[in-house]
Structures are given as C-alpha cells and as structure tokens.
Write a sequence for this structure.
C-alpha cells in the first residue's frame, strides 16, 4: 500500500524469516503502527475504530447465536425465546447482538456526518467515500434481514413491506417479489434464505472495510483543518497516539452500549416483535427499526408508489455523487461560513425525517414529511453546488502545526 | 517474424476475430446456463406451487359480515355486502376511479372497474378479493376509511365498498383471485 513501507529489520529470527517471505509484519508496522497521522484529529475521528469493533462484536455474537437459532417459520420465534430463557447467557448474547446493531448504526451515522462536515469526501478521497456508502448499504441490508429472523410481527410485516418495494418495478415487479419470497407470501422459504444471507453479508462487509482502509491509506487521513499534512511536524505515528485515543473512545462507547443492554435492552426495539408472526393481521402501526426511519419517511411522503420507491433509493444513492455535487474547493466546514449553517440544518432535517418516519403518515406529519423530503434533496442538488460558488471562505491555516500552535497560543495568553 | 506477420496479416486477423467472438459467445451462453439454476432455485418450489386451490362455504356469512380465509398462504376477504354498500359502489362514476381496470382474474383482461365486473354477475352481494393492499402488501381493515370500504393502516390507502382504490399511495384495486361457484353457496378459489 502506497509508499509508506518500512525497511525495518525485525530482530526475532522467526519473524524475520516469515516477513521476508510474506511481509505481513512489515505491512502491520507500516500501516497500523508507524502510519503518519495528522496530529490534530479530534474525537469525531474515533468512530472509524468504534465501527471496526462493532463489526467484530456483531460477527462473534451472531455466530454464537446461530448455534442455537432455528431458521424455520415454525420454530424461529420459539428458538429465540429458547435463547433468551434456556441457553446459558443467551439473553446477554441476544441483547448484545440486537443492541449492537443499533449502536453500529449510531456510530455509522456519526461517522458519515463527520465526513460531511469536514469534507472528507473531496478529492482525493472520493473512492474512499464511495466504498463507505456501499458499506452503509450492505449494513442496512444485513440489519434488515437480521430483524426478520426472530419472526415476530414486526419481523414479518417489515419483511413484507420492504420486499414489496420491488413490486414497484414496471412489468417484472411481481415476479421479482415472488422470486425474493420463494412463494406467494413471506413464509418459510423467505426466512431460510434471509438467514443464509444474514450470515453471509457481514463477511462481505468485512471485505469492504478492508478496501475502505486501503483507500484511506493511500492519501492518509483528512483532519479538522482540511489542510493536508505538509511536513513531518504535522503528523504523529498512529501507534501509540491514536491506538490509545481510539481505545479510550471505544471503552466509553461500549459503556453506553452496556447501559442499554443491561438497563433498557428493548428500548431501541419494538414491543410488537414479541408477538409471533401472523400473516393474517397487520399491526395497526408498523414501523421499521429506528435507523431506517428517515428513509421510510421519504418513501411515504411521495403519494405515488413507484416514485416513492425511487425517491427512497435516490436519497441513499445520492451520497455516491456527493463528491461532485459540492463545488467548494475548501474541505473543512470550519472555514465555510454558509456551509456550516447548511450542514446543521441538514442534520436537523434528517432528525425531523426520523421523527416523521416513526409517526403515522397522515395530517400534519404528512406535510412535515413532504417539506423535509424536499429539503433533503434541495440540500444536495441545489444548495451544495450553489453555496460553494457563492460563499467567501475564511482564510485557511498554512499548515496543521500552525493551526495547532495558534490555538495553544490563544489559550496561554 | 515480421515478414510472416505481414504476409498473413489480413486473413489471420479476421480468423482470429472470428475465433475470439465465437469463444466469447460460447463462454457467455455457458456462463448464463450455469448461473440460471442458482437464480431459479429461489423461485417457488414444487411443494409451494402444489397448494393451489381451496373450497369455502358462504352460507354462514350473514349480510353485513365479512370473513378472512387463507389461500396459498395469503389472506382473502369474503364479504357479504349490504344493499347500501352495493348501491354506493354502483353510484361511483368511472371517472372518479384511480384505477379504471377491474383487476378481476375471472373477468376479461382490461375490463372496466364497474361494480359488477368486481363480482360474479347475479351474486353481487358476495365480494371476494385478496386481503393484500396493492401498495406494499399489508392487510387492510374492513368497514373503515373514507369510502366505507377498507382502510390500510400502513400508509393510508382507502378502498371503497367494491375494494377499489380511491385515495392513498396504492396504485391498483384490490385483486380478485380466480374463483368459481360450485353450488349456490360454495366457492373454490384457485
Ligand atoms: C453487520 C453485522 C450484523 C448486524 C448489523 C446484525 C443485525 C441483526 C439484527 C438487527 C438482528 C435482530 C435482533 C433481534 O431483534 O432479535 C439480528 C439477529 C440475528 N443475527 Fe445478526 N447482525 C449482524 C451480523 C451477524 C452475523 C455475522 C451472524 C452470524 C451468523 C448473525 C446471526 C444472527 C442470528 C442467528 C440472529 C437471530 C437471533 C436474534 O434475533 O437475536 N448476525 N442480527
Ligand atoms: S401497504 Fe397499504 S398503504 Fe402501504
């Protein structure tokens, strides 16, 4: 990867022997220890490490849950109850996995907004950003299929509504849905294949994460000033400085997760999912998991079926072209007076969409949802290209070091 | 070397082009044929397709009452409509309908969505249709909504007393499954 390879002489003869045949130790030393990293990264930069840990937690807790879970429509619900009541520490493992999914999404949303604020998607990091968007989509697919597995009412009706989105495709829509279901309704074959794919996708995710980090290590990290490191004085080695900082953030983050697991394990879930799936009765108010709500709100705010589905998928895919929508040459939002406002309004807009998605699509919620959906697209398609041309950015620091020193001078004087 | 190439260049290149294209074509067809079983295995299997028809007795359903039965794993509404409901459905002008097609697998394809085209002629009091909202598949609630028919709570679709979509995101009328009367009070669906 890039030009950072170290010509380090390993002392241990066994390590040296292996490394000269497969330079795995050199790679680790160069990429995970000595890797030159901007010295001014703040805590928003720790969410990458948090995400990596969350993926590992989901993989390990998922693999052990799969040892006790049964993916058939007759037994799935009871097998989850069996995990909760009979399996040693089963309740802990399941609450870890269910809350882990929510915490995973909290971290990824912060990580994405961090990238938006500091312009991390801009040249030369476009591919890094796009791989990130694919990771986000793969996470959503994984979590959607995972939520179907306990086979409760929300599992069933969530699966039915979301798979039915594909029936909006002209001409072949119905055949596509039948193919996805393996039948004429969401049923046993559907559950079975969702389990298979739920097991597979996290490993695809791991491969994407590898590419993401590879693409990161070509240009190196962005930083809060958005000014690229100019000399060795602007960077510090990843280890021990950022390994420690990341570890500290991971511990704090996992404490929050533990608080949910032990004191409010079902807070981020839905009570109706403790009712076994019933294909004959739709719960009066079906909602997806909280992390899908903004997208669900966009789907429902369009009165036409096909257009609603198109709007929902576009709201996700538009992130792929974000690097080319933002016309400003200045990376960090810190130096962009107009963009800074726009950014926070956009965050607020996403939160509003989330609230709307959790409420029935009628009355004033419908109107608020339509305005928020409109603004979501306005932000990307009109405001971002335009504001970059109109605004007058603040002067950038000459280097990261200059910026850091200016701050510490201001503090000491 | 160069002389050999020069001599053979013309006919050799066309022969090679032909071989390349032929190889690529055979390769593409072969790959397609190999992929197909992996795709088709996800379609409904023989045991699912076998559950095709079911018989239902209508006698116990009182006027103004509706029941939900199961056909091919899906809920089906059977409603014994009141004269008032039938009148309401008949009174609707075709131009008011969002979906002007009957969506009745027993009527000719593309038939108009008149009330009589949604039922069996002469048995207009009995309405049989899939209990699947044509938006995203929820089960609508009966005797509800702004048109006295069905209301889907998921995203707010309103259906009238003939199960036709009148308001909301659903694109088409509730589908009428293939069914026929085997005697005065019994139907077979499928
Ligand atoms: C990206 C990583 C993953 C995410 C976001 C994720 C998400 C989820 C979610 C949201 C549920 C439903 C939890 C509930 O309400 O009960 C679930 C269930 C499940 N997952 Fe995962 N999962 C991931 C990785 C895995 C892996 C690698 C496996 C390994 C086989 C796995 C196996 C299971 C099993 C067996 C269940 C059913 C038991 C249960 O419902 O608790 N998951 N997953
Ligand atoms: S599923 Fe009925 S309105 Fe959406």
């Amino acid at each position: 990867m890039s030009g950072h390879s170290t010509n380090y002489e390993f002392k241990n003869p066994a390590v040296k022997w292996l490394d000269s045949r497969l330079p795995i130790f050199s790679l680790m030393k160069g990429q995970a220890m000595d890797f030159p990293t901007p010295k001014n990264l703040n805590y928003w930069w720790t969410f990458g490490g948090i995400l990596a840990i969350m993926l590992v937690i989901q993989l390990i807790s998922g693999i052990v849950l799969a040892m006790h879970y049964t993916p058939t429509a007759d037994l799935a619900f009871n097998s989850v109850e069996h995990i909760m009541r009979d399996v040693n520490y089963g309740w802990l493992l399941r609450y870890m996995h269910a809350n882990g999914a929510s915490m995973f999404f909290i971290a990824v949303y912060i990580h994405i907004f961090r990238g938006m604020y500091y312009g991390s998607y801009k040249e030369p990091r476009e591919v890094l950003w796009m791989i990130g968007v694919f990771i986000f989509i793969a996470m959503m697919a994984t979590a959607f299929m995972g939520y179907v597995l306990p086979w409760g009412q929300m599992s069933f009706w969530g699966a039915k509504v979301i798979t039915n989105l594909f029936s909006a495709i002209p001409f072949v829509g119905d055949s596509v849905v039948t193919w996805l279901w393996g039948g004429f309704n969401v049923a046993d074959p559907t559950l079975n294949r969702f389990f298979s794919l739920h097991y597979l996708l996290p490993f695809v995710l791991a491969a994407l994460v590898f590419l993401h980090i590879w693409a990161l290590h070509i240009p190196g990290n962005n930083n809060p000033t958005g000014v690229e490191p100019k000399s060795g004085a602007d960077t510090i080695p990843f280890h021990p400085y950022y390994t420690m900082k990341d570890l500290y953030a991971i511990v704090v983050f996992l404490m929050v997760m533990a608080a949910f697991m032990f004191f409010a394990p079902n807070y981020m879930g839905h009570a109706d999912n403790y009712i076994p799936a019933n294909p004959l009765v739709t719960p009066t108010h079906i909602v997806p998991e909280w992390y899908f709500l903004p997208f669900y709100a966009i789907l429902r705010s369009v009165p036409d079926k096909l257009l609603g589905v198109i709007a929902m998928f576009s709201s996700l895919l538009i992130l792929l072209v974000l690097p080319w929508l933002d016309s400003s040459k200045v990376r960090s939002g810190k130096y962009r007076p107009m963009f800074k406002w726009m950014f926070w309004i956009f965050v607020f807009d996403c939160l509003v969409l989330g609230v709307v998605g959790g409420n029935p699509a009628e009355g004033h919620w419908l109107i608020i949802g339509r305005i928020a959906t409109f603004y979501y697209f306005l932000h990307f398609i009109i405001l971002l290209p335009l504001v970059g041309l109109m605004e007058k950015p603040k002067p950038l620091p000459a280097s990261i070091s200059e910026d850091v020193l200016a701050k510490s001078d201001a503090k000491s004087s | 070397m160069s002389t050999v190439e020069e001599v053979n260049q013309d006919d050799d290149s066309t022969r090679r082009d032909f071989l390349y294209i032929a190889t690529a074509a055979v390769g593409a067809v072969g790959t397609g044929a190999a992929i197909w079983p992996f795709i088709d295995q996800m379609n409904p299997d023989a045991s699912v397709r076998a559950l095709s028809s079911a018989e239902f007795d209508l006698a116990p359903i009182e006027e103004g009452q509706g029941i939900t039965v199961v056909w091919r794993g899906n809920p089906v509404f059977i409603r014994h409509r009141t004269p008032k409901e039938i009148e309401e459905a008949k009174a609707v002008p075709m131009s008011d309908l969002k979906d002007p097609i009957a969506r009745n697998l027993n009527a000719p394809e593309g038939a108009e969505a008149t009330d009589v085209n949604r039922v069996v002629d002469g048995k207009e009091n009995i309405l049989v249709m899939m209990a699947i909202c044509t938006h995203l598949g929820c089960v609508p609630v009966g005797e509800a909504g702004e048109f006295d028919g069905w209301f889907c709570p998921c995203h707010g679709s309103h259906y009238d007393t003939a199960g036709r979509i009148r308001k909301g995101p659903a694109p088409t009328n509730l589908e009428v499954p293939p069914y026929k009367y085997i005697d005065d009070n019994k139907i077979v669906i499928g």
